[in-house]
Amino acid sequence: MRIQRLAVIGAGTMGRQISLQCARYGFPAALYDVADTALADAEAWQREIVAGWVAAGALAAVDEARIFENMRYESLLANALLDADLAIEAAPERIELKREVFAQVDRLLRAAAIIATNSSSIRVSALEDATERPEQVANLHFYLPVWDSPMVEVGGGSRTRADVLDAICHFARAIGVLPLRLRKESTGFIFNRVWRAIKKEVLTVADSGVASPEDIDRAWMIKFGTEKPPPFAQMDRIGLDVIRDIEMIYAAESGDPADLPPRILTERVAAGELGVKTGRGFYDYPNPAYADPDFLKPAAAD
Q1: Rounded Cα–Cα distance for residues 7 and 275 (Å)
Q2: Helix (H) or strand (E) holding 63
């Protein structure tokens, strides 16, 4: 089994990055979204990113042209899936929505092809029976930004064949990311189980009034450095609605009210303050306070 062509379902933050990474490494990639405006926005964003690579000397102009020769933008699902060896679903983190997408893809995708989810938390076994090919269903979870976090978690469900997982791992290496293979199913997989513990605790510390999100982030940055965004800034980048949806998955699985997302998160989501994509979350964008050189100076906390 060899993956040569793929389709990515969903032109949001993850879908546009996954498809661009594949196209950059020479794989024909179709990016599908039901909304033409979403596709146009994704293409414009991708072209801006690639132009930045060229300007920085990380990519030759001839390679820029080749990348977009590998990209297709499709608003008809059947066209996106035509001849695909792999379909990667990148829909919002809601089980019923993902199951619906899986069922639609299954009806249109050729029989020998693989269906994968980019879910950051949902077990494949919760999705596999939405298809007629549970042995060809897997998880392929990328991290943002894909080119700066070159790893992908690869996992199967209750019936996924070993050769399917082998093919996905081979494909991952071919697009420049390290496959991290799960030995068994686990909600949240590998890194996100660790990240979830951090995320849940910082939200709890802020929600209970112990400290502000800004001071929690200051402590993190002073202790661990400023190269990567601190926890609340990271949640803003991911999208607070996405964070809320993921926490609801853990809460539904455990049945423990303590696992429900705290008010400091749900109130922002209800207000439409979703982070970077809406201009406001725990910080205001495009110039968040944590990026200010004075953020960690002693006078800043005043």
Answers
A1: 28
A2: helix 61-70
The structure's pTM equals 0.84
pLDDT band at 300 (very low <50, low <70, confident <90, very high): low
Distance CA 56, CA 74 (A): 30
Q: Can you tell me the distance from the alpha carbon of 35 to that of 33, in angstroms, rounded to the nearest whole number?
A: 5
Chain centre distance of CA 245: 13
Q: Which residue, 33, 140, 233, is CA-closest to 46?
A: 33
pLDDT in tens, 108-145: 999 999 999 999 889 999 999 999 999 999 999 999 89
Please give the C-alpha separations between residue 238 and each of 83, 284, 294, in angstroms, as whole numbers: 32, 15, 24
CA 7 – CA 87 distance, rounded (Å)? 5
Q: If DSSP codes are grouped into helix, strand and coil, which group holds residue 28? A: coil
DSSP secondary structure code for residue 59 in this structure: S
Residue type for 99, please? R
Token digits for 227?
Answer: 């190269």
CA distances to 60, 107, 264, 281, 284 from 93, in Å: 36, 22, 20, 19, 24
Q: What is the DSSP string of 234-285?
A: HHHHH-HHHHHHHHHHHHHHH--GGGSPPHHHHHHHHTT--BGGGTBSSSBS
> 300 near 221, Cβ under 8 Å?
no
Cis peptide before 134 (omega within 30 of 0): no
- The closest of 152, 132, 133 to 142, measured between CA atoms, is 152
> Distance between CA atoms of 204 and 162, rounded to whole angstroms?
40
Residue 87 in tokens? 């379909």
